[in-house]
Write a structure and sequence with these properties.
Distance between the termini: 30 Å
Largest sheet: 8 strands, mixed
Number of helices: 9
Number of domains: 2
Order of helices and strands: EEEHEEHEHHHEHEHEEHHEE
Number of strands: 12
Strand order of the largest sheet: 6-7-8-3-9-10-12-11
Bound molecules: iron/sulfur cluster
Helix content: 25-40%
CATH superfamily of the largest domain: P-loop containing nucleotide triphosphate hydrolases
CATH topology of the largest domain: Rossmann fold
Strand content: 15-25%
Radius of gyration: 21 Å
CATH class of the largest domain: Alpha Beta
Structural class: alpha/beta
């Protein structure tokens, strides 16, 4: 249903000649209907830029985004308007993504007004009340302002605003990372039940591999603008291949630690390099314990090494 092909996004660095930030470098993936593609990686790896470029908040430098076979990456703003109804987004921060001066009823109704989907205000109010009910809020919340809610409730308002358009694709950009741990599970379970009921496809972005695995059918691991490993969510745990993926898995704390347990040594060292001047060859070679001479010179590209399991590494 949604297919991203060789997506590239560069940002110019103002005042530094012709230098650019290589935010996204040739990312490709497909999300079948009713499934979730999880995009995971450290902060600054380009996950959110992928989401914003798919949404056309950023214009792609090159590559294409196909929705039901139609390339939407070069459409004009006017041509894009009916497409925007089909792709909606939930943002990371439920505090700054809701207009503090608007009541909940108006926040959730705003997309309906922009797209002129209902004839009168009474119909819009009923649609908002019904939508709030579906995300676990009530009619009594309609006349309140965002500051009167907890973080989890605010994210439910954000979800209601996205779902009221009845989208085919929901882009969830770190939707739980600003929430308390106890609330994260509630919001994730709400998203899962909505997907089951409405058969929506999700692009789920997070830096927590354990959470991404829980919600996703397919997973792409991103490092410095590229997907370095892509496979089903079970395989990523059972048989991770890329040294970076293995390092991310090693860094997940045990949910049931036992006295005397020795934590695995995390195999990733140092910080992510600058995307303005990414290292030549494999961008991970500056942090990889298995780096070889070829890794410093030749960029590895994704190739299928097992059924449906792709990895970009010279070890394979
Ligand atoms: Fe490590 Fe080389 Fe594989 Fe990159 S290509 S992950 S440096 S072994």
């Amino acid at each position: 249903m949604l297919e991203v092909q060789n997506l590239v996004k560069h940002f110019p660095v103002h005042g530094v000649g012709r230098k650019v930030v290589h935010a996204v470098e040739g990312v490709s993936f497909a999300i079948p209907q009713g499934q979730t593609f999880g995009l995971v990686g450290e902060s600054g790896c380009g996950k959110s830029t992928v989401a914003r470029t798919v949404m056309r908040i950023y214009e792609p430098t090159s590559g294409s985004v196909l929705l039901d076979g139609q390339d939407i990456s070069r459409l004009s703003e006017k041509e894009l308007k009916p497409i925007r109804r089909k792709i909606q987004m939930i943002f990371q921060d439920p505090y700054s993504s809701l207009n503090a001066r608007m009541k909940v009823r108006d926040i959730v109704a705003e997309p309906l007004m922009v797209h002129r989907l209902f004839a009168n205000q009474a119909e819009i109010t009923e649609a908002v009340a019904s939508m709030l009910g579906q995300v676990g809020l009530g009619r009594q919340h309609m006349n309140r302002y965002p500051h009167e809610f907890s973080g989890g409730q605010r994210q439910r308002i954000g979800i209601a605003r996205a779902l009221i358009m009845n989208p085919e694709i929901l882009i969830c950009d770190e939707p739980i990372s600003a929430l308390d741990v106890s609330i994260q599970a509630q919001v994730v379970n709400l998203l899962k039940s909505i997907q089951k009921e409405k058969n929506i496809s999700f692009l789920f972005i997070a830096h927590d591999l354990a959470m991404v695995r829980y919600v996703s059918h397919l997973i792409g691991v991103m490092y410095l603008g590229r997907i370095v490993e892509k496979c089903g969510s079970k395989e990523i745990y059972l048989k991770p291949l890329h040294p970076y993926t293995k390092g991310l898995l090693d860094s997940i704390p045990s949910p049931r630690p036992v006295k005397g347990d020795v934590r695995k040594e995390v195999s990733i060292e140092g910080d992510i390099p600058s995307p303005v001047s990414p290292p030549p060859g494999c961008a991970f070679h500056t942090r990889c314990r298995q780096a070889m001479a070829v890794c410093r010179e030749t960029t590895p590209y994704l190739k299928e090494v097992e059924n449906g399991h792709e990895v970009a590494c010279h070890l394979y």
